[in-house]
Design brief:
This protein has 9 helices and no strands. With 215 residues, the chain is mostly helical. Helix 2 runs parallel beside helix 4 and helix 3 runs antiparallel to helix 6. The longest helix is centred in the middle third of the chain and has 29 residues.
Amino acid sequence: MARNEVSYLLLVSNTLSIITISTCFVLKIPQIIRILKLKNAYGVSLIGLLMELMSYTIMMSYNYRNGYAILSYMEYPIILFQELILILCVMHYKRCLNIYGLFGSMCYFCFAIGLLLVVPKGILTFLVPLCTPVGASSKVIQLIEILRTKNSESVSLLTWFISAFTNFTRIFTIIVDSADAALLLNFSINVFLSSSVMIAAYLFKPSKVKKEHQS
């Protein structure tokens, strides 16, 4: 591949990375605002969020410990911060903020610090492929929650659209930066599942369901 073509691909990749990271600054914000506004978490799966949290934590640690370009994974710490706030909001409205929730939070922070600083890279390499089924399962659980309750009142369409978009852009940036097969598989599956949750959330919005019953 010619040097000019490589430079062009790197430019496009870096531009997409900046767009992705910038977009991730507001990824979970619409979802948080919607829950706080409605004062409920109908249709939002707490188990799915916790699984998503584990997946994001492992993926961030894996990228960091392997010394990958910061622009290729900077969204992870940004999303993690928002994810923790979102989980607290959901736990509050599902009345799960108790001693068990506090103990679970302490265990998570010990787990995260261990992955970033102590756990051998070989274990992280083993854990990363598991993030694909874990991350996928978290979205499947969220999808099932919407289909089960037939109510996505508290689910933000914008959050899931951003999720699908940022996962899609990451496919290109990873191909250019590292071509890591595990990461590519993870993001490809997440594009499909995030889009599926977004479509389901749209179809089961209370206003939409009400109109269908009236017609």
